[in-house]
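User: I'm curious whether this sequence folds into something compact or stays loose and floppy. Could you predict its structure so I can see for myself?
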Amino acid sequence: AGRWRQAADDYRDAVEIWPDAAKRYDLQYGRAEAFSRLGKHDDSLKAYMAAEKNATDDESRALAILKQGDEYSSLGNGAESMSRYRTVLEKYPETATSKKLKRMVEIRELESKGRDLFREYLFADARKVFASVAAADPTRRHRMEYYDVLCLYGMGSDDEAIAGAARLAEKFRRLRLDNFHKRIHVGTEPVETRDQLAARSLV
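Assistant: Here's the prediction. I'll summarize afterward.
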């Protein structure tokens, strides 16, 4: 955090000393990234908007708009986030940013469809959609498994739902252990394996 806080301060000082620097794409983009890393998503969003305004080519504009979508997502505004992503796809379809973004937007829209089905109590259909999302994007698998548990509860399949929730809880427990293991400083003492840590946690 210290490095990013220093970067944010440096960008602020640059704008104060050289006002014309505020018109530089790279400065605004770097400033936005620093704010984002510090969790200042409102400030980051404004800086990415300034970066878009000062961009001199389509690739840079597309990237700045994509980042605006990411910041809206961090602020909990999913609708505006998706609107920014679609803007990239519609206005700058030939950019590398757009081509990378296309699949992600398709997956997010599919997930949104699943949530709509869930809200309509069409749990069986929602499960199929969530399973498709998990297959298409492994990084969202845990979230989809959670939604699947909710669907099972909605369908009245309590035993299956409880079993699914237990499996998911175990995955998260092991994930926490893995992350803890990665943070252990390797010194002269032997480092415990993940299974050893898990066994000790059950004592």
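Summary: The radius of gyration is 22 Å. Residues 158-183 form the longest helix (26 residues).
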